[in-house]
Amino acid sequence: MNRVPSVVLILVLLAGLTACQRSPHQDPWRDGPSVLSQSSLTQDTRYQCAEQRVETRLGEHRMQLRLPERDLVLDAVVSASGARYEDADGNGFWSKGPSEALLRLQGGAWVNCEVTEARSPWVAARDRGVVYRAVGQEPGWVVEVWPGEAPAIILVMDYGQRRLEIPRARRLEGDAGYAGEAGDVAVSLHILREACTDVMSGEVFPTRAELRLDGSVYRGCGHELSP
């Protein structure tokens, strides 16, 4: 009896089984969020954590924590209850049930979080490609800066009643902000890299923003955003 075909068949079957196994190099989380595969993620969950709104995405043994200014990748750790994720920089997220969680940033205190339907406007801006966003109060205004050497800038003033667009802005000396024209309106946005507290929400931001147009100065707070 010729036994060669049987041996060949066994080798083919073993090769097929090996190919079906998941290679560690195919793990979309292994090299961080830059190689994240959307097919490996569950649906986003949104949380309100004190003044800050965040979003989470779960992968295999890891979580993508979407903060206003950037994304973090946290590893699953052993927990007596719930699902807990942390990184080496003292950031952590601890899911305590279907609607409650705890958030810790840079080794600080744990903050209570509750599930919310509302998206973080900062994360949404990052998803649109915005690289800097600032907000101010009384009257409410928002400014968003797009990437590029001569970036487009969108301003929404007076609680959404007025919209201005600068198609090509100039960078101020020393990377201190931007200036340009929205039609016949001269606009400048000055960015001071110092802590700023929003007067309405109490949220603390890493930059202070001064928006100047129509002879007036509007003050607010902002984030430099990472994609």
TrEMBL record:
<feature type="domain" description="C-type lysozyme inhibitor">
    <location>
        <begin position="47"/>
        <end position="108"/>
    </location>
</feature>
<dbReference type="InterPro" id="IPR018660">
    <property type="entry name" value="MliC"/>
</dbReference>
<protein>
    <recommendedName>
        <fullName>C-type lysozyme inhibitor domain-containing protein</fullName>
    </recommendedName>
</protein>
<keyword id="KW-0732">Signal</keyword>
<keyword id="KW-0449">Lipoprotein</keyword>
<keyword id="KW-0564">Palmitate</keyword>
<keyword id="KW-0472">Membrane</keyword>
<dbReference type="InterPro" id="IPR036328">
    <property type="entry name" value="MliC_sf"/>
</dbReference>
<dbReference type="Pfam" id="PF09864">
    <property type="entry name" value="MliC"/>
</dbReference>
